[in-house]
Amino acid sequence: MSRQELLDYLLKEIEKCRFEVVDVEAFPVPAAVNVDNKIMIYNSNDASPFEVAHELIHILNKDNHRGDYFDATNPQEVRANHEAVLLLWEIFEANGGNYEYFNVFVNTTEAPFELAESIVKNEYLEMHEAIAEIFEDEIKVSINKQEMHDYIVDYISYFDVIEIINIYQFLDRYHLSHNFYSMAEKEFQQLLGAG
Q: Tell me, what's the pLDDT at 100?
């Protein structure tokens, strides 16, 4: 999606919110919205996709007490910046973009590089860590089924006679989670012929 296509898309989204969109080339700021009067004025020569997305976020959140333009101390402005980056990133990904093309994202949206990088990197890393954690858990379970047998064989080899097995003591001795109690119990039963 080109810069202009992105701008057109965002402006249409603002119109869908029943806001009048007015292009004033002499407007002193790139874009501004008045939520109460349902109007957005932008300067088509200066407004970037990021700045228009920022105003769209104000509309969606019904922000009407924002203070100065891009006031970094105002929570509504900070939230609008953050959510604008996330919105633009979502559009970017929906159009085939990914983290490898981050520079294309910044160039197309004109989002502030450091802000966009910190937000997208956090979102991207959190998502990939969550995915890795899901697969890691599956890998651990499959590894632990095989390792469980080896741990139990090693554990049993310390005893001359086994009268009773405390599975929790076994798990603690091999630094295994108590979540593996059932798995260990089944393996003990198979190895010792009980059950």
A: 79
Of the candidates 31, 72, 38, which has an alpha carbon nearest to the alpha carbon of residue 53? 31
- Give the chain's radius of gyration (CA, Å): 29
SS3 letters across the chain: CCHHHHHHHHHHHHHHCCCEEEECCCCCCCEEEECCCCEEEECCCCCCHHHHHHHHHHHHHCCCCCCCCCCCCCHHHHHHHHHHHHHHHHHHHHCCCCHHHHHHHHHHHCCCHHHHHHHHHHHHHHHHHHHHHHHHHHHHHHHHHHHHHHHHHHHHCCCCCCCCCCHHHHHHHCCCCHHHHHHHHHHHHHHHCCC
pTM exceeding 0.85: no
Which pLDDT value is given to residue 22? 93
CB-based contacts of 187: which residues, under 8 Å, 6+ apart?
Answer: 148, 149, 152
Confidence of residue 67 (pLDDT cuts 50, 70, 90): low
Looking at beta carbons, which pairs linking 34-37 to residues 24 or more positions away fall under 8 Å? 34/64, 35/59, 35/62, 35/63, 35/64, 36/64
- What is the pLDDT at residue 134? 63
